[in-house]
Design brief:
With about 240 residues, the chain is an alpha+beta fold. It contains two helices and nine strands, in the order αββββββαβββ. The longest helix has 25 residues.
Amino acid sequence: MNSQLKWIAILLLFLATTMMQAQQNDVFKSQFTFGVGGGPVFSSVDFDPTIPQSSNQGISAGVAVKFISEKHLGVLAELNYTQRGWTEDFSELPKNPDHSYSRTLNYIELPLMTHIYFGNKVKFILNLGPQVSYMFSDKGTMNDALSGYVDEKQKEEPDAPLFLQYQDLDSKFDYGLLGGAGIAFDTAAGSFNLEGRYYFGLGDTFDNSRSRAGNFSRSAHRYFSGKLTYFFVSF
């Protein structure tokens, strides 16, 4: 009898120890991770009145820090360099098929997003939050045919509100909402996050509060992007 009680006590002790270890393993540990990433950007500007455009292709690259505060939830902050802009489409204007114009705007962006994930080694990820940006350089490229046409029209109508989109931008600051969805792969070498993103600008590049003829009532950025981020440092 004493021998049986002894083995029962050992079994109960073993079960209790196993349960305690399982509970300890279930305790979530918060985590910081740092990484780098980049990818292509396909941008345009939502002009009103509308300007026909084709997608303007650029790149984005930067650094990221992710803080996982609890299961399935965290915060993602980034500091990115991103090329945005627009490319005008003159195919709808049969009189001017040889015209071309594109404008590249270089921005420093700071998005701060809620990070949601599901899964273990392979995860579905969702990022959503605000983004603020600052434009540090701007370059427009206009071919000779369009340049000559613009000069001619301005000479004919020097006081007419023409070609506002070719003038200097009124605002270097921008803000809006950024969202992305994709997949994360956790490996022994780090975590690889692949996602598609969409940016919806809320600010205007041309000041629509100023009373001037030919002003745009809307001139906000839009872009789609693909991004691969490699998180390689964590603690």
